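Data availability (excerpt). The following record was deposited with the supplementary files.
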Amino acid sequence: MGSQIKVKPLTSELIQDAEALFATSPETQGCFCTWFIIPVAQYHAGGQEGNHAIFCDLMETSDVPIGLLAYRDQEVVGWCAAGPRSRFARALRVPSFKGRDPAEDESVWLVPCFYIRKDLRRGGVARALLEGAVDLGRRAGAPAIEGFPFAQGAKLSRESMVGVESLFASCGFEVTRRPSSTRVVMRRRLDSA
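Predicted structure:
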């Protein structure tokens, strides 16, 4: 039996854990989970330091946590971003969200990305994080929470940080749109869940 995974919303007290986790991959170390938040030119211009500063500022100024960390045996092993769709302005410009209702952007939550330490993938960490995001969204009063993972059977790419359809389905999310053969938009209602 494996160790239990504990999930905690990111706070300033846990920033060093997030930094340590992101340092385990060149992609996350440079991104600091800002890819879906800021314009691409700003993302590249700021580089690692600029993106880190934006991440820390957002963490300090947001009304609700900007994401969650997963721990196994007191060691940080994973992350997922979560919060109101409006926070993820760049994600909302992708074709997957073309059919959304913009009036919901402030209230409906989005889980746009995950990062699980490579040696601990396929061990339930992503599911624990997604369940934590659902709980956090519910406690914040969100009526629903969404994701735009890879569709079942789609070939994964570098963008697999968005998750996969089976993960979201296992946490009670239902398909609302299939904008392409590779992507699906999934939603879970929180007001009656």
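Summary of structural features: The chain is about 30% helix and 20% strand.
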